[in-house]
Design a protein that fits this description.
Layout: H1 13-44, H2 50-93, H3 95-109
Helix pairs in contact: 1-2, 2-3
Length: about 110
């Protein structure tokens, strides 16, 4: 039985839960790193320089987070562009390539064939 074609506004519960779980894990990891950074500042920086050290650390971590988010966004954009190219190629070359694209799509999504 053929699948219904997804519309742009369709809600995908699997993606929602995976995103929520990844976000929660990221939050927990971030809280652990906060404790590590705070302990390192307390241990290696004198009390008079603590505010400056915390500010510098916050700025550096914000820059690192911004770079990581930008790289993730860029990789997603590249993947979307690649997907468009694959779809155009499939339309041009018929069912043989469509079967191969489906197989590789499943591999990229993490399922086994």
């Amino acid at each position: 039985m053929p699948r219904k074609k997804k519309e742009k506004g369709d809600f995908n519960i699997k993606t929602f839960f995976i995103t929520s779980i990844v976000t929660a894990i990221g939050l927990v990891v971030g809280l652990f790193w906060k404790d590590v950074i705070t302990a390192a500042i307390d241990r290696y920086i004198s009390q008079s320089d603590t505010l400056l050290a915390q500010t510098v650390t916050a700025v550096l971590l914000t820059l690192a987070a911004a770079i990581i988010i930008y790289l993730l966004y860029k990789s997603q954009k590249i993947a979307t562009q690649y997907e468009r190219v694959v779809k155009k190629t499939v339309k041009r070359h018929g069912k043989v390539i469509e079967k191969r694209a489906k197989k590789y799509s499943q591999i990229l999504k993490g399922s086994t064939v």
